[in-house]
Amino acid sequence: MDKKRITVMVVDDSALIRSALKKIISEDADLEVIGAFSDPFLAANALKTQLPSVMILDVEMPGMDGLTFLNKIMTQRPIPIIICSSLVSEGSDTLAKALSFGAVEVIQKPKIGTQKFFEESKIRITDAIKAASQAKLSNLKYIRKSSERFVPPPRLSADAVLPVSSHILKETTEKIIAVGASTGGTEALRIFIEQLPIDVPGVVVVQHMPEKFTRSFADRLNELSAVTVKEAESNDTVLRGQVLIAPGNKHTILKRSGHRYYVDVIDGDLVNRHRPSVDVLFRSVANSAGKNAVGVIMTGMGDDGARGLLEMKKNGAYTIAQDEESCVVYGMPKEAVKMGAVDKILPLENIANEVLKKTAA
Fold first, then answer.
1. Domain ranges in the chain?
2. Which CATH code fits 158-359?
3. Catalytic residue status for 182
4. For a 10 Å CB count at each end of the chain, is N or C smaller?
5. Catalytic member of 121, 182, 284, 288
């Protein structure tokens, strides 16, 4: 019996982008385009007679913008929706709205230039569609509402942070927290990071997300959280009370110089079909921090991070996986568990507390 194809509807006002997306999707035997429309009104009319497995939706369109259409769909007849945007950053407000309205993924528009760029776009887009088709929308709704009343404690002033950084340089047993996530991870990370206190050991995160959007994502989390959240840059010191988010389209690795942990942001090929790759981060943490690290693998499709988490565990780190019930897509944690890389499996809302227990002095 033939495997049922994942059906896709494309909504974008650019004929060039619609054509490129249709070409990418049609070349994958598991995917099928059932409609490509230039504006939300045409798409809305088509939705009356056919419901796709996944919709790819542009942000800026005439008549009705993509965010308004996204909100209407998710409040009336929810389906997995991928926001497709250009390289130009629309800012944290647009990203925050897309995620809060229920977007499962955010991807870049296909790069039409060189063959390598197009092939990488093809990998990322088809993977995003397949992941979105498996998303549990009920979990997205749950995690968005789970901390609506959360009021973060006051942020430390810049002066208050300075003594913490000098403490890091003196202590050889300073803990490091490494986190990897993909589909559903943007909101899962929000829940996790909002629970972190201002003196938490330094955190480094890989979330599969396009370049430019990682900075907007970091800025959004920085506003919501007690800790400082920023997009990682090469030579950033890993500090207490700070979360570093790996920039999109770059790998981020942890290094150590004497008593100082810092990150390096580098180019490189896709690893496990991703850049940044969770495996790349986790393996560097295994080598640089060993038993002083805690590793967390969250919701996402595929197996990126599973091998790296196993390497962390073998080097003495404590490892945690998000449980199936709270994942939007139970792929990456599932693979890590199957490999024997996980010390403890926990629901999303309990992960931060477990991390804090294991990193307590």
1. 6-133, 158-359
2. 3.40.50.180
3. yes
4. N
5. 182
